[in-house]
């Protein structure tokens, strides 16, 4: 998502740079010549702004997703290292709230 957001931001920035560097309303893009009137120019700017906002939104969502994933991974690593640091007898003892499937101390259901 971050990569797509960056691509969209660069695309909108390229469109803005194209408009700002030209002196007239004639634009040559990939060998094609475009002449835009005021309404078409406004709509092109609105589309470029929408693409820019979409890129920024995707960039933010991707960054939040990555941060959330890193927090989960950090927590899992901390939990694993704390389990590894416990004495051997405590490793086998179930934690409160854990349910054992085999060898349960509860009565079997009939």
Structural classification: mainly alpha
Q: Give a short account of the largest sheet.
A: 2 strands, antiparallel
| Low-confidence parts | none
Radius of gyration: 29 Å
Strand tally is 2
Structure description:
Residues 69-110 are annotated as: Disordered. This is Lipopolysaccharide assembly protein A domain-containing protein. The chain crosses the membrane at residues 41-60. Keywords: Membrane, Transmembrane, Transmembrane helix. This protein is mainly α. The protein has one domain. The chain has three helices and two strands. The protein has helices spanning 2-21, 38-85, 88-92; strands at residues 26-29, 32-35. A two-stranded antiparallel sheet has the order 1-2. The radius of gyration is 29 Å and the shape is rod-shaped. The mean pLDDT is 82.
């Amino acid at each position: 998502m971050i990569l797509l957001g960056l691509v969209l931001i660069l695309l909108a920035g390229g469109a803005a740079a194209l408009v700002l560097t030209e002196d007239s309303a004639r634009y040559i893009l990939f060998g094609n010549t475009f002449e835009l009137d005021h309404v078409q120019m406004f709509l092109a700017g609105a589309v470029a702004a929408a693409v820019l906002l979409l890129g920024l939104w995707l960039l933010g969502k991707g960054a939040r997703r990555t941060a959330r994933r890193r927090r989960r991974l950090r927590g899992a690593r901390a939990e694993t290292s704390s389990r590894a640091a416990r004495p051997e007898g405590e490793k086998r003892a179930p934690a409160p709230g854990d349910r054992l499937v085999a060898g349960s101390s509860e009565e079997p259901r009939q």
